[in-house]
Each structure stands twice: as C-alpha cells, then as structure tokens.
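Bit of a strange request maybe. I'm writing a small parser for structure token strings and I need a real example to test against, not something I typed by hand. Could someone generate the tokens for this chain?
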Amino acid sequence: MSEPLMMTYQRLPVTFDHGAGVWLWDENGKRYLDALAGIAVCGLGHAHPAVRDALCEQAGRLVHTSNIYRIAEQERLGAMLTALSGMDRVFFGNSGAEANEAAIKLARLHAHHRGIENPAILVMENSFHGRTLATLSATGNRKVQAGFEPLVQGFVRVPYDDLAAVETAAANRKNIVAILVEPIQGEGGINIPADGYLPGLRAICDREGWLLICDEIQTGIGRTGRMFGFQHTGIIPDVITLAKGLGNGMPIGACVARGAAAEVFAPGSHGSTFGGNPLACRVARAVLETIAAADLVAHAAARGAALLSALREALAGIHGVVALRGRGLMLGIELDRPCGALVGLALEEGLLINVTAERVVRLLPPLILDEPEAAHLVTGLSALIKRFLGAH
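Reply from user aminoacidic:
Good idea to test on real output. This should exercise your parser:
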C-alpha cells in the first residue's frame, strides 16, 4: 500500500486507527501508550474534545480566505502568543521549518537594514532546525545535509553549550548578526545546557548588537514545564519560533518577535498562502486555552520530574545506561551503544518511543500524562531497556 509514496520515511509496521488521550489503537485493536505524541505535537493527546470541537465548529464556518484580508482568528491567536511570550508581533506559517525560515530571513533583512552586506547567523553543532535548504544548512547534523549540496551560505557553527566558542566567533567574524539556538536540543539527544548558557548568549547578543533567536519548536507550548523553554532562564530572546505542540496535530508554525526585530518585515517581504488561516488559528487558540484552563504547564513540570526520578530509580546501576536527563516532559535516556532497535521492540510491547542521536531514547509524552500511565511507561520501558542491554 505504500508504493505510491516517496520513500522518505523508514515506517514501522503499524497503522493506527484511532486514539484517546495518551493511547492509540491500531487496525487490529491493539492498544499502545504514546510516549512520543507525534514527536512533541499532541500535547493534549488524541481526540481531545476541545480540539475536535474547534475543528468542527470552525470548519463549518470558514476554513480559508487569504492573508490579503484580515483574519480575526489569526489576530486573536497572535494576541495570545505575544502576551504569553512577552513579544510584540507574530508571523504565521505552516510548520517549524517555515517558522525558522522566517526567522532566518528576518535576521538577514535586519542586517541589510543596518548596512551589513554578507550577514551570518551563529548556529550550534548537533542542532536541528528543519529540512528546507536554509534550515538544513543551519542544522548541525551532517546526515541531514548529505546529498543536498551546495548548502545555503551564511551560517557559522560552534559547539553547543560553549560560551567561549561564541566569544571566539564574535572576535573573528564581524559579519555575525544573530544566534539561532534551541533552549534544549531535541534531535541532538535531549541536551540541556548549563544554567548560564542562554543568559550568556543574551549578554553577548546585547553587547554585539545581534539578535537572539530561540528555536522553541520542540521545547515550546508547555513541553519543558514552562510555556517556553527560554522562560527557565530569566532572559527574553528577540525572536522565538514555534510549531509542533501549538496545533496539537493541525499544521501551524509561528515566528514571534519583539522590539526592532518585530518591525523588520514590511508588506511584500514575506508571506504564506495557508499560514495563519482561520482553521489552524482557531484550533491553536483552543489548544492554548485548554493548556491554561487545565494548568498543564505546571502539570508537565511535576509529572516530568516524577517520571525522570522513577526512571532513574528503575535503571539505577544498570550497565550500559550512561545518563538520564530531562526537563518537564522532554526526557532522554542515553545508552552506551546504538539502540534504534528499541523502537521496534517497544512497538511490540505497546509502547511508542523514539531514538535520536543513535543512542538516546527520547520520550515526549502528551502533557496530559497521568500517574498510572507514567507508571505503566516506567515499568514497560525499564524492562525493555534491561532486556536489550542484557541481550547485548
């Protein structure tokens, strides 16, 4: 049945029929605990009534017009995001890659307005920013880039969580105009920087006149136990990019900016046919309203801390477990060997997980995960990891 499709994914042998909360059921009626949430997308889980009702109600009224007209739902959602983030203006697209493309264009245009002819953006090793040509060029993963050369120029790469390397770049590259950074690296292996890293980047940007752009596509919308990952640090960026959890499965992306960065784009300098249409914005508004009403950001912080503690206890002293790390419901279990096979083994056991950076089991469960479901995840996954390590 997959023959008509381009072979861009190594798909697992399962097709899901329906879901409810943190659970999915396949075509044969087998139940799975979804500890991946569509890769940090379905924060409210599956078939949430608020999402369903918003979709149905808005689809029955108006799905799409065009951005050449005012869109009330877009304006309402924009007001919510700026209030939550401390930013001033929003541009809406359809995905995280588009949000990052907008941020890259914004940084370059801002530089040209300042008379910088060949601007460069500082990016990090092991980062992931998307699969369009510009965003994969910014990404610090050679596997993503291979075969798509020539890459887009204008990026300077340094190690993550290394302020000294940023200082060296600042001293030697006078055309740097911005830093693009993930508050926590997701695809890179759930890498959490030192507490002073983002404040240090903010200070360098202030001194050098650079923009600080935080890629919050995976860390945003409550995932880390704050609405946005940068809020753990006490700083505020100039630009943040959002997608994934914002629409709970409805495609939407956002580039949110403040100050001078918010005034860079003018009519005609950027756009999107579908970005910010009434349907996507109405659903995203329902997502944010539900997160607030159920206090799911605080829930994610508490549930994530308890989950990490329980996993540490269950895997304590197990040879082959290198580290466990996480913030909120964004967790990683690093092993001492490639462990991609765990994804298929977990599927057989009714658990949906992911492996990234070859050796890190990544967990991104819905924000609504409750205590019995978390316990089920700990029991099943820890047994699976022990069995896998023992077999090797």
